[in-house]
Fold each of these.
Amino acid sequence: VYVFKWTISSGTCTPSESTVTVTNYATPTTATAGADQTICGLTSTSLGGNTPTNGTGAWSIVSGGTGTFSNSASGSATFTGNAYVTYVLRWTISNGTCTASTDDISATFNETPTTATVGATQNLCGTLISADLGGSEPTVGTGNWSIVSGGTGTFSDASAYDATFTANTYGTYILSWTISNGNCTPSTADVTV
């Protein structure tokens, strides 16, 4: 910051003076926000913005809804979202009248999938078609039936919790109902037919 004084003098008269201030700003540090994140079962995460050498930093929400930062001026702030969605968060480093530097990351919060359950063991005589397998209906995530052991066969709808199974031959089959959501660990349960 420089302050300059302009003075006009004439003989013994009191000089006339005026000052002007000139502020030179350094270009702000280039913002880096860190890597995109995918989190399971939580709606908060630690952020990885860099520490500015020139200027000051500030986090903001670009999209995804509402949430809060533990300290929006800290690159390593914790962000807490209000929903299981994908947020785009922006780290901005500003310095005076210079063009600010920004970098965005996405933080995806996945809800833990519904716990998978199945119906009771089925003992069938003279038929290759099971009753309803009794999978739990997913309120979070998507379900899928698969054959663990016993041979081959088909499901009436492999993504339906209430599917039936048609075996290709008589025998004991272990069938698995798996509910998945994003990067979360899937929940599975097995039924014997």
Note: The first strand starts at residue 2 and ends at 8.
Amino acid sequence: MVCLPTYNERENLEAMVSALADVLPDDGRILVIDDNSPDGTGRIADRLADERDDVVVLHRPRKEGLGPAYLDGFRRALELGADLVIEMDCDFSHDPNDVPRLVAAAEDADVVLGSRYVPGGGTRNWGLVRRLISRGGSLYAQILLGLRIRDLTGGFKVYRRVVLETIDLDAIDSKGYAFQIEGTYRALRAGFRVVEVPIVFADREVGGSKMSRSIVLEAIWKVPALRLSRL
């Protein structure tokens, strides 16, 4: 099951659902998690669910951040019996055609990360400041947490069901991109095998970025907090 959190993604949602349908197996499903988008994304999601058997919609009352949206999506995916849960952006920053490669890698791993910072990976259409923030954030988390994972802030991931059942979703409280760091860190601490698969991340062409100063600041304090909790 692919979890797609949405907030004002009306320009991208239908095209993303169509693209995912072309690459998912017959039993694959798409869970749209909409945070009461004022642009009508939720209504589009409901129409798609009425028209298609492979689309499910989870409506949330308000925008609370990436982390809470994904956590609610993970819980619903588990309730619906998903064995593999995929998280990815709805704005085509993550290429739907990469999904089969990540799913295949999950045959020998518990968590698969679509990585920009391993050989073969990269970014496209990014300015210098955006590259520095992203790469610096991953290095910061990598050093403080003592991990070998190179892309800790990436949001294109596959979790096996057992991982999400083990890492205590209720204990995760990160709101922004620190959520990605925390999820991977908890999986590694629980003894699960995490692998990185190279992807190219392309900046969105339609709609606005969800990056903000508060998201960056949360990651700055959350990473040492995770390390202290381990001690």
Note: The radius of gyration is 16 Å.
